[in-house]
Amino acid sequence: MKDKFKILSIDGGGIRGVFPAMFLAKLEAELKSQKKENWQIYQNFDLICGTSTGGILAIALALGIPAQELYDLYLNNSEAIFGKNWKLLRFYKRWVKGLGWSVHNRNSLESLIREKFKSAYGNEDPRLDNCKTSVCVPIYDLLNGQPSVLKTRHNKAFKRDYHIPAFKAALATSAAPTYFDPYSSTYEDLNGLESPFSNKVDGGVVANNPTLIGILEAQEAFAVKHENLSVLSLGTGYQKFTDGKKRSRWGISYWLGKTRLIDLFMQAQSQLVENQISLIQNGIDKKHKDNPRFKYIRINTELSGSLKIALDETNPDKLKKLGEKAAFEFGNNGSRIVETFCK
Fold first, then answer.
1. Given 202, 230, 270, 312, which residue is catalytic?
2. pTM
3. pLDDT band of 250, cuts 50, 70, 90
4. Cβ-based neighbours of 248, under 8 Å, separated by 6 or more
5. Annotated catalytic residue: which of 9, 52, 148, 270?
6. Measured between alpha carbons, how far is residue 211 from residues 62, 71, 72 in Å?
7. C-alpha count within 13 angstroms, C-beta hemisphere, residue 245
């Protein structure tokens, strides 16, 4: 029997990345407690896919940064990343100027990510080529008007992306519309040529849940059959978007209010991917439910009531409670995840 090809997929979700970060920190801590030599995430997965905040985590984990450090980075810096625009200013920018300005400046995020990535690579900027396991990170390329997936060099045909500095790939996949401007920069590739890297937008507009990207990549780039797949998919918490009210006005003020439009497309895309994976895994009417085509575990948590968390939340109590939810989910699922992915 062939070894399983193991995929880790991490959803987008802004600061709610504390959920998968804590879940994976618990997993690493459990492996260390069992005296596992290969206790880090990158040592236990053949491919890590991530979108937006999940893309930041995917690249960081693949560079060998422990998940606990990433959880601490999110928890301790939410105010620096999202809090400099006070509520009144944020309202002003979103509504008075908001049809022309993004709500947040990315300088703090860029500085934090760049320094964290450099700390894992001898205080130099690592590139995607320096990842210790394979990575796929979706973005949307505004310049060419098409989605794209940034990849490590895990297939001989992949010659485009591995030159890109890791922190620039992370900033590209996390450039969420209205929250941050599209990401534009340049870099010197490994052949010494100056390369443009402009107008890149958050991958969540096309693949907020990148699990299907990982499955297709395993099939096409690694020639892995369904029966040899094991997939762990981590959400960032979801808030059900529902509205059954009878309304006479469904215009721009409704859809932009409370970021409804972004919440809707993120939730809808993630749900669709879950439905599609269920179809691939279990067949029509779940006729293969008792003998699924591959192993798949989805971990997520509903955010409701007093724990509604915005993508740019800065309340540390809420974020700690989200981390607590992740610890709870690991308590319920940790044993089978260790058994499935970390033998």
1. 202
2. 0.93
3. confident
4. none
5. 52
6. 17, 22, 25
7. 7
